[in-house]
Amino acid sequence: MFDIGFWELLFVALIGLLVLGPERLPVALRGLQRGIQKMKSFGTSVQAELNHELRIKELHDHLKKAEQMDVEKLSPELQRSMAELREAAAGVQRPYAKKPNAQDDESEPPATDESKPSS
For this UniProt entry, what is the primary localization, expressed as one broad class (predicted)? Predict the structure, then answer.
């Protein structure tokens, strides 16, 4: 990665030993190792997020192409897939919108103000 040879690495270790001393050098190396691990994990998470966003963009582009083509000429499977994609996209755009459940409608009627005593 940095193209450091054995002698250069030995020289850096010797300077670190002289500057930090034998007591603090292992602690400094562990701290450096943790910092490098955190940077690698951050880079990996950024890369995964970018790949995810690029995939979403690609799906949106394909959906736009399919919508520009004659939708009626698509097979029934593709039409169902497009409908599912539209529903998923709408769910992502409004993640906190309350979805009506059929079970809620059947179980109990909505509460009204009739149960409160009038003053």
Answer: membrane
Tokens for 68?
């520009």
Biggest CA–CA distance in the chain, Å, is 91
* Residue-wise pLDDT tens digits, 2-11: 688 999 989 9
d(CA 64, CA 111) in angstroms, rounded, equals 43
Contacts of residue 4, Cβ cutoff 8 Å, sequence gap at least 6: 12
**How far from each other are the two terminal CA atoms of the chain, in whole angstroms?**
80
Residue spans per domain, the chain: 8-90
Question: Exposed, middle or buried: residue 89 (CB in 10 Å: 0-12, 13-18, 19+)?
Answer: middle
Q: Are 19 and 11 in contact (CB under 8 A)?
A: no
CA Rg value for the chain: 30
SS3 content of the chain, % helix, strand, coil (to 5): 80, 0, 20
The DSSP code for 95 is T
